[in-house]
Amino acid sequence: MNKVRVIESAFVARIAAWWLKLPSAAIVFGSSIFIYGTSKVAFLQNTKWLRHELQHVVQYQRYGFSGFVGRYIIYHIRYGYINNPLEVEARAAETNESLHDRFQIS
C-alpha cells in the first residue's frame, strides 16, 4: 500500500489556485498532495478530485520526480493545461473506483 499525505492550506497550492484563477486547487509533488481553498475532509469526500490527484501520484511513481516534472512542463508548453497528456490521464482516472484502494492516505 502506497502512503500519501494531504497537506492543507499549502502555499504552493495557493499559487496554483491563483495561476488557474480558481478558488481552490491541489498540486502533487511525489506522494504529497498539497491543497488550498478546501479542507482535508472536503477534499477526501470529493472522490473525483481525489482520484485525479492520486493519478498524479501514480504518474510520479511511473516517471520519477524529475521525469514527471519535465514531462509536465514540456506537455504544458506544447499542449496547454487541458490537453496536457498527464492531465488527460488524470481526468480519465476520476471514474476509477478502485484507484484509492492502492493508497493509505493521511
Note down, in words, how this protein is organized.
The chain is built from four helices and four strands. The protein is globular. Helix 3 (47-83) runs antiparallel to helix 4 (85-92). A four-stranded mixed β-sheet has the order 2-3-1-4. It has one domain (2-96). The chain has 106 residues and is α/β, with parallel strands linked by helices.
Annotation keywords:
18% strand, alpha/beta, 106 residues, 4 helices
Distance between the termini: 13 Å
**Tell me about the biggest sheet?**
4 strands, mixed
Helical amount: 55-70%
Strand residue content = 15-25%
Low-pLDDT residue intervals, each spanning 5 or more residues: none
Q: How many helices does DSSP assign?
A: 4
Domain module tally: 1
Radius of gyration: 13 Å
Q: Helices and strands in order, then pairings?
A:
Blueprint: E1 2-7, H1 11-20, E2 25-29, E3 32-36, H2 40-45, H3 47-83, H4 85-92, E4 103-105
Parallel strand pairs: 1-3, 1-4
Antiparallel strand pairs: 2-3
Helix pairs in contact: 3-4
Brief write-up:
This protein has helices at residues 11-20, 40-45, 47-83, 85-92; strands spanning 2-7, 25-29, 32-36, 103-105.
